[in-house]
Amino acid sequence: MLWSIKIKNQANSCFSDNNHYGFTIIELMITVALAAVLLAIGIPSLTTLVRNNTLATQTNTILSSIHYARSQTITKNTNITIQPIVSGTDWTQGWIVTDGTADGVRQFEAIDNASLIVDTGENEIVYLPDGSITNASAITLVMTPTECPTGNPDIREIDISLSGQVSVATTACP
């Protein structure tokens, strides 16, 4: 016995001329509206993320220069000085680490979109060969972003104790 296969009429299939494909204007408008809402929620968060990462990077640069100076003073058994490039207590334009010789200098770039000042009025930090500092009291470097929304914990305070140890604290913007 022969088996026969009956093929259905494909007039009502998905490939017929009666079916249309694509998006309606309503579907497109809803999609655009949802995208706008998601962007409105996401963009401020992204701005905050970028600002926090910038502050962390700049703080780490300052910390690495202080740690570099302390390690060099112990390694070379000589005094190492950290001082701003522009004289005074404003370190925003950058700072240098030096041992007093021409080949013992390392310069650090300026801080972008923030101010960096020494809160204690000192214009230099001098490390002794034992890793302590010569200053009369502990030193506090304060980095304040140019855009500091009230209440945000964006201010970084870098404290250097008399023993040369470094700690970082965050405080709220005024």
Description:
By secondary structure, the chain is of the alpha+beta class. The chain has a single domain, classed as minor pseudopilin epsh domain (minor pseudopilin epsh fold), CATH 3.55.40. The protein is built from one helix and eight strands; from the N terminus they run H-E-E-E-E-E-E-E-E. The chain has one helix spanning 25-76, and strands at residues 80-84, 95-98, 105-108, 114-118, 125-127, 139-145, 155-160, 166-171. The strands form two sheets. Strands 3-2-1-5 form a four-stranded antiparallel sheet, with helices on one face. A four-stranded antiparallel sheet has the order 4-6-7-8, covered by helices on one side. A hairpin with a 6-residue loop joins strand 2 (95-98) and strand 3. The longest helix is centred in the first third of the chain and has 52 residues, at 25-76. It is elongated and about 90 Å long.
Descriptors:
alpha+beta; four-stranded antiparallel β-sheet; 30% helix
N→C terminal distance = 94 Å
Report the sheet-strand fraction: 15-25%
Bulk shape: elongated
Number of domains: 1
Give me the secondary-structure category.
alpha+beta
Reported for the largest beta sheet, the result is: 4 strands, antiparallel
With strands numbered from the N-terminus, the spatial order across the biggest sheet is 3-2-1-5
Spans of at least 5 consecutive residues whose pLDDT stays below 50 are none
Q: What's the overall average pLDDT, rounded?
A: 82
CATH homolog superfamily: minor pseudopilin epsh domain
CATH architecture: 3-Layer(bab) Sandwich
The string of secondary-structure elements, in order, is HEEEEEEEE
Number of helical regions:
1
